[in-house]
Structure to design on (352 residues):
């Protein structure tokens, strides 16, 4: 506390990102980064950025990038908004679309940034409990609401919601915006982007951070009806006209263009995930069905906190959330084969 702080700063409880420890030989399985490098075309594009492109302000509309995203997702460029990571895109959506007289709803077990943005922007929010098996029931959400935001697959459970369930949610919630946060959709899920022509209240948010291995570049985007996209643009242009720098714009275009590299790395992550799930199960863990690049697991006899600490002592970092309903789970990002082997060796020693 400092006497110069504004009231809002005094009241904030900021989001705490997974740690980025600077230890050597660390097995880092805590922030769902890709274990594989981004497309080599991305590095070529970055090296090719001219001095002139850096001297000038970047394209405030990210025209080329929006065209690339639109073409890939079979929507119009006017239906695409880009931002400095999907965290920024979602934050702008909170202010532009989800701040309404009625409260905003999201699952009780979900992305822990949502309540932080709600607090920052003064948005009243309510959580809806996920089922005992951590699945999400669209009928559990009230038809009258100020907005709904759900990650699909959910974080940190990794569980997928079917497109039929999302459609049901949209049909029931016709008077407010439904945001589907698809940070992990490329690891086996089906995107809701195909529904935006049918539902003018649907905003689908994706990111290059996970499946495109570009968490360091900070590029995310939203797709939806032009009216929703216009709202995001109005807030963006009232805050920072240039959220994406020139390097990020051309690197992101190169990443979107390399479909082969993208598909190969997603397939590798999915194959490793399935192998890890079965090995964990044979060690006695219960692993939730995952459609993401991480798994969420609990052991009936060994408390998650104890396992988290023991793994950390062996330089293996996973994520543990000290929160109701999930405090006995570990969230483990899918790493390289070598990372996974190290993790399984340590777990075999700890629970074997
Ligand atoms: C990682 C993540 C994001 C944010 O990704 P950016 O790096 O900001 O694009 C958004 N939502 C969920 C659920 C995530 O896990």
């Amino acid at each position: 506390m400092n006497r110069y702080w504004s009231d809002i700063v005094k009241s904030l409880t900021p989001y705490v990102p997974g740690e980025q420890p600077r230890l050597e030989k660390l097995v880092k399985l805590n922030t769902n980064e890709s274990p594989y490098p981004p497309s080599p075309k991305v590095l070529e594009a970055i090296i090719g950025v001219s001095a002139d492109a850096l001297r000038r302000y970047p394209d405030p509309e990210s025209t080329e990038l929006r065209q690339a995203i639109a073409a890939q997702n079979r929507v119009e460029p006017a239906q695409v908004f880009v931002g400095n990571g999907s965290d920024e895109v979602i934050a702008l959506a909170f202010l532009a679309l989800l701040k309404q007289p009625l409260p905003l709803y999201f699952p009780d077990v979900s992305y822990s940034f949502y309540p932080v943005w709600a607090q920052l922007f003064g948005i009243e929010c309510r959580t809806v409990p996920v089922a005992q098996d951590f699945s999400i029931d669209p009928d559990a959400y009230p038809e009258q609401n100020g907005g709904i935001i759900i990650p699909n697959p959910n974080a940190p459970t990794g569980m997928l919601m079917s497109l039929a369930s999302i459609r049901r949610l949209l049909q029931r919630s016709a008077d407010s915006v439904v945001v589907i946060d698809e940070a992990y959709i490329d690891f086996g899920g089906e995107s809701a982007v195909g529904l935006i022509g049918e539902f003018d209240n649907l905003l689908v948010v994706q990111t290059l951070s996970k499946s495109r291995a570009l968490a360091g570049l900070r590029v995310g985007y939203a797709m939806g009806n032009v009216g929703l996209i216009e709202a995001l643009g109005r807030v963006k242009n009232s805050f920072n006209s240039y959220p994406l720098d020139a390097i990020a714009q051309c690197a992101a275009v190169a990443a979107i263009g390399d479909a082969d590299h993208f598909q190969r790395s997603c397939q590798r992550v999915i194959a490793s995930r399935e192998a890890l799930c079965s090995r964990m199960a044979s060690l006695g863990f219960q692993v939730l069905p995952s459609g993401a690049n991480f798994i969420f697991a609990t052991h009936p006899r060994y408390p998650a906190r104890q396992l988290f600490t023991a793994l950390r002592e062996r330089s293996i970092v996973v994520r543990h959330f000290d929160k109701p309903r999930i405090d006995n789970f570990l969230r483990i990002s899918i790493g390289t084969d070598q990372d996974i082997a190290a993790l399984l060796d340590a777990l075999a020693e700890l629970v074997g």
User: Anything to note?
Assistant: Residues 259-282 form the longest helix (24 residues). Residues 168 and 272 are 32 Å apart (CA to CA). The pocket of pyridoxal-5'-phosphate is lined by residues 85-87, 111, 151, 155, 181, 183, 207, 209, 215, 220 (CB under 6 Å).
